[in-house]
Design brief:
The protein has 277 residues and is an alpha+beta fold. It has helices at 9-21, 31-37, 81-93, 107-112, 144-155, 160-166, 207-221, 235-243, and strands at 3-6, 42-47, 50-59, 64-72, 97-102, 116-127, 136-138, 173-180, 183-192, 197-204, 225-231, 247-257, 268-270. The chain has two domains: 3-119, Gcn5-related N-acetyltransferase (GNAT) (Aminopeptidase); 123-270, Aminopeptidase, CATH 3.40.630.30. The chain contains eight helices and 13 strands. The longest helix has 15 residues, at 207-221. It starts with a strand and ends in a 7-residue tail after the last strand. Residues 2-137 form the N-acetyltransferase domain.
């Protein structure tokens, strides 16, 4: 029987495998933190018992949701199965503003569904020689409330469940902070991926802190090849990355259905994930 249902952990691992096959390069340990954000926000359509299409629409707060992982298994494309999970996901969001990072091929479809472009997110790839610095220390559980507040001030919304899980260290995902005058001045998380590692979220006010933080994250993850997704408004970060040999390899359009959050990104800001914002 064909049906749309909530994903299990095993279902999500399957869908992340589809994403890997499409070159999206997910992390090695994303599923648990994704589900912690909103266990009811991951939808899968089965056709004759086989997984066919998927989407996530995670309700981060009472007024904001984020759409991602919109993907169909190759054998089931062009049959309308994607629309079924799309509709289920948006129904889950209710009256919330919904954000997404749309690939160029799909942006006009999103416009027809009421989404409005608000900017770009540019993915950079480059290599960093890992090194330690005296001003770096591991991220602690006690840091998370302050980081949640910093994130909310920059993204314009609370994402406490998601980031509380994401910022908790695992064997493949770790974080560092720079503390100055008793407050967090910069922080970042890095996770091992199918290829290299991705940095995000990432927040720094100073170029020197951003450079130290990136080098420290490269050292602790043990992978020199790094990817980071940067909003187009963060001109200082684009300049810093270009100056260190990073190259843009991919971009998406940040789009919203409903009132866009009031963002105020730090000069050096990296998106946590394109799947959950």
């Amino acid at each position: 029987m064909d049906r749309v249902e909530h994903m299990t952990r095993a279902d999500l691992e399957c869908v992340l495998g589809w994403a890997a096959d499409e070159g999206w390069n997910p992390g090695l340990d994303d599923a648990e933190a994704f589900l912690a954000a909103d266990p009811e926000g991951f939808f899968l359509k089965r056709v004759g018992g086989a997984p066919a299409a998927a989407v996530s629409v995670v309700n981060h707060s009472d007024d904001y949701a984020f759409l991602g992982l919109y993907i169909c298994a190759p054998a089931f494309r062009g049959m309308g199965h994607g629309l079924d999970v799309w509709n289920a996901g948006l129904a889950h969001a209710g009256g919330r503003t919904v954000g997404l990072d749309g690939v160029p091929a799909q942006q006009q479809n999103y416009v027809r569904s009421g989404f409005v472009r608000a900017g770009r997110t540019i993915r950079y790839e480059g290599r960093v020689n890992g090194r330690d610095a005296a001003n770096l220390r591991p991220m602690r559980a006690s840091d998370i409330p302050a980081i949640l507040a910093l994130d909310a001030a920059q993204t314009g919304t609370r994402r406490d469940r998601y980031l509380s899980a994401w910022l908790t260290a695992t064997s493949t995902r770790q974080g560092l902070v720079i503390e100055r005058n008793g407050a967090i001045a910069a922080c970042g998380t890095v996770r091992a991926c199918r290829a290299g590692a991705k940095i995000g979220p990432f927040m720094a006010l100073r170029a020197g802190d951003a450079s130290d933080l990136m080098a420290g994250l490269a050292r602790i993850i043990g992978r020199a090849q790094l990817f980071i997704d940067v909003p187009d408004s963060c001109h200082d970060f684009h300049d810093l990355l270009a100056g260190r040999g990073f190259a843009p390899v991919f971009e998406t359009a940040r789009m919203y259905r409903g009132p866009a959050p009031a963002t105020a990104y730090a000069p050096f800001h990296g998106v946590a994930t394109l799947e959950l914002g």
